[in-house]
Write a sequence for this structure.
């Protein structure tokens, strides 16, 4: 029997990559899902319809901009109204930029901080009242190994992800007696478009070739010497939504091939 057949979920940044894998994994367990993100409209519709066809659940799409607090709040309320409840919130949307801090573009710093951290605040704030009323909820942030350690040239991303760690801890403590858990998953390097797109900037910043960036910078951090897969991250998210994980809260769980064990 599907573990989440009575639940309704929303996953931000879920039109591709890790977010889409999480949305599909939740749907595979029976949850109705709201997906969110940017991209080609036809491609997004194919993914949305595919979730419904593949798993026999309801799936809706929200184009809310994670830079705009009012749109995030409206997205949460609309998802709740559409499905009756919002039981699972996965804050997954994220962007990255690589540059020395004294050359870091101001607009990139603002955008990274807003999408990777501040958007989570607005979503959690809007979702919690309903979860408290029903005395059940799962809040999950897709964070990063950079929530626990730093790397050069990623000041905004590292700062935002460290902020996510503090936010999740605080939320977990505030709602600990309401049947709600709040956790973050901290992946190492996952082969997604987000990682692929930062390779040219890293090549420029460090004066390396593409292969050197992959093997000497990215996978050098991970003792397994393997990229984490989106399906592995999705499986952890499903577990955190299950009853088996109800006493796991306030954690940032590394899925990083041993990176942060060093």
């Amino acid at each position: 029997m599907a573990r989440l057949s009575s639940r309704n979920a929303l996953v931000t940044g879920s039109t591709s990559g890790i977010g889409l894998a999480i949305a599909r994994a939740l749907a595979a367990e029976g949850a109705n899902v709201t997906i969110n993100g940017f991209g080609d409209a036809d491609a997004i519709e194919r993914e949305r319809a595919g979730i419904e066809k593949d798993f026999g659940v309801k799936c809706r799409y929200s184009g809310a901009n994670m830079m705009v607090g009012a749109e995030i709040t409206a997205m949460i309320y609309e998802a709740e109204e559409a499905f009756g409840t919002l039981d699972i919130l996965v804050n997954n949307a994220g962007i990255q930029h690589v540059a020395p801090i004294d050359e870091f573009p101001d607009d990139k710093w603002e955008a990274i901080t807003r999408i990777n951290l501040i958007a989570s605040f607005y979503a959690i704030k809007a979702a919690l009242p309903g979860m408290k009323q029903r005395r059940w909820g799962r809040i999950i942030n897709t964070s990063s190994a950079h929530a626990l350690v730093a790397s050069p040239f990623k000041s905004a991303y590292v700062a935002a992800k460290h902020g996510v760690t503090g936010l999740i801890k605080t939320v977990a403590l505030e709602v600990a007696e309401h049947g709600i858990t709040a956790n973050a998953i901290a992946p190492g390097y996952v082969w997604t478009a987000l990682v692929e797109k930062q390779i040219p900037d890293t090549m420029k910043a460090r004066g390396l070739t593409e292969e050197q960036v992959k093997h000497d910078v990215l996978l050098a951090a991970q003792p397994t010497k393997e990229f984490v897969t989106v399906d592995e991250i999705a499986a952890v998210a499903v577990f955190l939504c299950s009853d088996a994980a109800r006493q796991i809260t306030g954690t940032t769980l590394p899925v990083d091939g041993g990176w942060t064990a060093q």
Q: What stands out?
A: Residues 44 and 240 are 26 Å apart (CA to CA). The chain is about 50% helix and 15% strand. The chain has one domain: 8-189+229-261.
